[in-house]
Amino acid sequence: MEIVLVGLNHRTAPVEVREKVSFTAEQARRAAEELRARGILEETLVLSTCNRSEVYGVPPEFSHECAPGLSTFLSEFHSVRADVLSVSLYHHYDHEAVRHLFRVAAGLDSMLLGEAEILGQVREAYRFAHEHGATGPVLNRLFQGALEVGKRVRTETELGTRPMSVASAGVKLAERIFGKLHERKALVLGAGTASEQVVSQLRDRGIAQLYVMNRSRDRAEELAKRFEGKVVGWGEWDSALQSPDVVVSSVSVEEPLLRREILERAMAARGNRALFLMDLGVPRNIAPDAAELYNVYVYHSDDLSEIVQQNRSARESEIPKAQGIVDEHVAKFLSWQASVDLVGLVDALRVKMREERASFIRARMESMKHLTETERAHVEKLMDEMLEKLLLEPAERLRGEKELRRKIQNVEALRDLFLSYREKP
Amino acid sequence: MNHLFPILSVLAYLLSFVLYVRFLSTGNKLTGRLGTVLLGLGLIAHYFALLERSRGSHTVPYHDLYGSMSLFGWLLALTYLGLELYHRQRSVGAFVLPFILVFFLAAHLAPADRLSPPAVRGVIFALHVTLSILAYAAFALSFVLSLIFLGEERLLRRHRVGDVVWRLPPLELLAQMSQSSVLVGLVSIAAGTALGFVWVDRLSSQYSFYDPKYVITLVVLALYALYFRLARTTGWRGARASKLCVFNFMIVVLSFTVVNLYFSHSHRYF
User: Fold this and answer.
1) pTM above 0.80, yes or no
2) A216 and chain B: CB distance < 8 Å anywhere?
3) Which residue, of A160, A189, A211, is where some domain finishes?
């Protein structure tokens, strides 16, 4: 019962290769079926995200032997030259494959350390493969373990809690003031890339209403259309600033757009409801003295960058804690795997001993012809009982004692010692 | 006297405090949940400690400093737990638990001092006392929440977004929690005061307006009602309302200490 992993990710392959080797859901299902039909893998799970494509499997024989076949299969399946693919592919076997998956689920292997999306993607890949009968006892256990790791890392560490980009830091800060943004409104000044990033974040956080204001109305309408917002006429400050809770500004101007007196008027009209202003423009779009106004919170891109830097350090400091959880679950999985392997070994040993006993009896009984049939049966029964007794205690201990399973590192060595290769269960 | 329940209460509160602090500093959700469980266990042990203390008097323990302070601590813990569960927010636990612990310990260290028994006591009087102390506990909680609001607001305005700010509740939630707490306090103090007047009326067949405690209680009621109004709908919402809440609690403390000890005839401990 071995595990093999063949895949590539953002570290090993450029985006041109990654996009060629990515799997749609239908392709993942077809790949699993073909791998089984060709006898390369007995259990298969394809994990395909924008940053990685990985095939996890349980081969019928040794994992090291099936890896080249798996690489060739990937090359054929996606019509990518083998030499192009081979430089990007990584192969992991058994505990290394387990560790890799658990690190992926924890967000430790992500491009953005600790990102939350990957756990959902692992969950979805597992659900899909399980529903289509592509997984079996080993991958079921492995992926359930991975989901548990991901959940624990997110609950017990702060690896994924802090924002890591200026846009997400701004949105998260708005949440520090308003809480969930579901019932909040936002106004975006400017329709450039920076604004778009924040708008995307705001939409992800479920902002209730989005207004877009831009000098070029066409671009404002384009952005508003993409994110289901409304366009507001350029410069209509009094009406535009009355309802939003969050204002994001990223406009190229020489003088601040939002001067103190404009915001003062707006705050009076709003009854001093809190207003969060995110200034991503250089030079500044919001007058610095506006930050002195009651219930007005102004953050410039420099402030947000500083917060992102602090958060990056904070996330990195959580790595050992997350790694500890990964290690704990790897040990747990390996212990389970060893118990299954060892119990299988004991069962195989039992079969072999019975066969030995049968040939032994056949050989020895020739010289004991004076025994009746009943007596012979009795001798056979006694020998069977003795063999059972010999195997019973180790089998029970293997089932019950985790520490013992942990100590027996190499089940294959035991298999080689007591059973020949052909007799592997 | 059996010390088992008081010791269990202190241990549970202390451990709960440590866990809440750890939750605030590490963000570990399991630690936070354990903090809540320990607070619940502390509440149960504290309840039995109060029960044991009041055994024989067959009513809430209001007739001595111990009873008053200990009941205050218990109701503060109960109100906080209710608020935590209602708003699903446990990161302020680290700030509330010290108050609960201080009141519980102060109650045990307080010198024996008892009120002389009045002529008539009963359910109405017990409810009057319990509701009044519940109101003070709820106001104390809103005071703590307002202080947290002011601290967090200051840090956010100064762009000093450290670990704690990411874990504290959002400002608007803190304001809501404070308002919920004040609402509990307002309802309790209004009902408690009304019951107090009913009790006085039954006792002497006429209202007595000579106790300064009545005046300050009505002032407290009016100030918190004002806070409740200003914090929700006007330009005072935010830090100004929180400052008013802090000021209001100063008046409550004044009522609880100076007025009770030096001016009131019949409200020494509540």
Assistant:
1) no
2) no
3) A160
